[in-house]
Amino acid sequence: MPQIYTAFASEVKIDDETIEGLQSIEYSHAKARSEIGAIGTDRRIAVYFGTKSVTGRLRIASGNATLDGLLDGNTAFAISATLRHGEQSRQLAFEDCYLDQKSFGMSAEGHGEAIYEFTSSAVREE
């Protein structure tokens, strides 16, 4: 059975502070990979893996003073997320995070929205 989580019941924290106005959290993680080919053939004979990178985005209604301070201070922080739906839940923990950039937009008849982009040394999913 698929796990379907709702934003309404979920919670995201920076260190121990709940992020107010959070609209979405997005993340991806990837591993650098190189293939080694055999001499004289087009076949791969081995694969080696390098650095794992974790990147993400926090979309927040209007903005967040805590995140602005972390961006200005180049300060490391942790993100924890509890994704919920009914009795089901899943924990995400992003370690050793840094903010890379912030963008802001506002449309007609809408509200302001800030997007904070971050990197993390690792993400644990439980």
CATH superfamily: Hcp1-like
CATH topology (fold) name: Pnp Oxidase, Chain A
Helix content: under 10%
**Could you say which overall geometry the principal axes of the C-alpha atoms support?**
globular
Tally of contiguous helical segments: 1
Strand-residue fraction? over 45%
Write down the domain tally.
1
Number of strands: 8
Main sheet summary:
8 strands, antiparallel
Following the backbone from N to C, one meets helices and strands in this order, namely EEEEHEEEE
Give the N-to-C terminal Cα separation.
17 Å
Describe the structure.
The protein is globular and about 60 Å long. The protein has a single domain (6-125), classed as Pnp Oxidase, Chain A. The chain starts with 5 loop residues before the first strand and ends with a strand. A hairpin with a 6-residue loop joins strand 3 and strand 4 (44-61). The protein has one helix and eight strands. With 126 residues, the chain is mostly beta strands. The mean pLDDT is 93. Strands 1, 2, 3, 4, 5, 6, 7 and 8 form an eight-stranded antiparallel beta sheet that branches.
